[in-house]
Design goal:
Elements: H1 2-31, H2 39-63, H3 72-88, H4 93-119, H5 123-142, E1 147-148, H6 161-173, H7 183-205, E2 207-208, H8 221-232, H9 239-260, H10 264-282
Helix pairs in contact: 1-9, 2-6, 2-7, 2-8, 2-9, 3-4, 3-5, 3-7, 4-5, 4-7, 6-7, 8-9, 8-10
Length: about 290
């Protein structure tokens, strides 16, 4: 009986998610039929969504334990720059790119976890302060110069390389890793996943610019929204598929506004409203509970 309910719950979850995909596609297809929503376009949207999906899957380790991380963007930026430097300046190629990004991401996650546990203050405050430090370190390493990944090292920025790397990360998440009792481990795993996201990001975009003054926070929101999809559909027993499809929906909406020629400010407003709605639906703090 319990198994039947679980299966029916998952089926309902998939119905809702697929419905969101179809609805978002249909709305923009009607509004701009000639330059949106073709099969090749949808494939490109999905490919772009894989980048944020990996980060969202990693962030889920932290979010499911009631913590938060405002250093996501700074981690991605720092990891991408370190990986690029290892790959180009030290001539380590793909090994330097992969190892540099993932190890840096894991180190950042370790620092986040240790400071959070030792200082005993809300994770939002800890990671906000550390994000400023990570931005400064990234700027110092980059020397104020945009770091560009050579074209011969961008296999993870296109199919099938990006799909393979994203699948490896998602399979690792689905292997039953239990971090509920280990907050530091949750941050480390999250950081490593963000390192993988950094590989996909710089490979897809070809370069990374070091920014300061919390400007890296603009990279936080898309992975965060995907992670909230996972939390919302956790009750259906399918957080991972929800994150993957949720990020796809977010990208459909994003590219839909681009097809409409909507100003960036409008896109940001819609993205912000969508994030608020998702947070409202998924976050149910009990009376007297301190939000972490």
């Amino acid at each position: 009986m319990g198994t039947t309910k679980k299966i029916s719950g998952k089926a309902m979850g998939y119905v809702i998610l697929i419905g969101l995909v179809i609805l978002s596609w249909a709305i923009f297809k009607i509004l701009t039929p000639h330059n949106f929503g073709s099969f090749s376009n949808m494939l490109n949207y999905f490919q772009a969504s894989l980048i944020a999906t990996v980060g969202a899957v990693g962030f889920y380790f932290v979010m499911v334990m009631g913590m938060f991380d405002f250093s996501i963007g700074a981690n991605i930026m720092l990891s991408a720059i370190v990986g690029c430097v290892f790959a180009t300046r030290f001539n380590l190629g793909y090994f330097g790119l992969i190892a540099g990004c993932i190890i840096t991401g894991a180190i950042v996650g370790t620092l986040n976890g240790l400071f959070y546990v030792k200082l005993r203050i809300p994770s939002m405050i800890v990671t906000t302060g550390l994000a400023l430090i990570y931005e400064s370190v990234a700027n110092y390493i980059a020397g104020g110069v945009e770091q560009t990944l050579p074209s011969n090292l961008r296999a993870f920025g296109q199919m099938p390389g990006d799909i393979i790397l994203a699948l490896v990360a998602c399979v690792a998440k689905n292997m039953g890793i239990n971090v509920n009792k280990y907050k530091v481990l949750a941050f480390i795993l999250s950081g490593a996943f963000l390192g993988v996201m950094a590989i996909l990001t710089i490979s897809y975009g070809s370069s990374m610019v070091a920014v300061t003054g919390m400007a890296s926070m603009s990279r936080n929101f898309i992975p965060t929204m995907g992670c909230f999809f996972g939390l919302a559909f956790k009750k259906y027993g399918m957080p991972l598929p929800a994150i993957i499809i949720g990020e796809f929906v977010i990208n459909i909406i994003f590219f839909g506004f681009i097809a409409l020629g909507a100003p960036t400010a409008i896109q940001d407003v819609i993205t912000g409203l969508a994030l608020l709605i998702i947070i409202t639906v998924t976050t149910k703090a009990t009376k007297g509970e301190i939000v972490k």
